[in-house]
Amino acid sequence: MSESLKLGFGALPESAEAAVILLGDQPTLPASSISAIVAGRGERPIIAGRSQGHITPPVLVERSHFGMVQEATGDSGLRDLLNARPELVTAVELPVADDVDTPEQLSDLEREG
To answer: Which residues, 6+ apart, have CB-to-CB distance to 21 below 8 Å?
Structure first.
């Protein structure tokens, strides 16, 4: 996950003021969750979802902190870094977004849709 983040942030144009990190395995994430993250901009350089007491995507990172992505390692993305630096994060309460991790879960989702 950290390598994907680094590639994505490396591809951002110089004009990008911020970037929102979304996970591909959460296709049912409501647009209202993304709107709530964007609306949280202002006081701190990172705005993250919080569900059931845990920091979760989506996460918005202001350009001033794009370099933090380079510190990410392994499959936890920014989670460990954000938990270690709560003074940088505005947490926005969001509903739990279900993961779709198997072909069966995807099929179930397609049948429901």
So the answer is: 5, 8, 57, 58, 59, 60, 61, 77, 78
Confidence of residue 91 (pLDDT cuts 50, 70, 90): very high
pTM, entire model: 0.89
The span from the CA of 93 to the CA of 104, in Å, is 29
Q: Domain span at residue 106?
A: 2-112
Task: For residues 47 and 18, give the distance between their C-alpha atoms in angstroms, rounded to a whole number.
Answer: 10
Q: How many domains does the chain have?
A: 1
Q: What is the rounded CA–CA span in Å between residue 46 and residue 48?
A: 6
User: Looking at residue 32, which CATH number applies to its domain?
Assistant: 3.90.550.10
How big is the chain by its Cα radius of gyration, in Å?
14
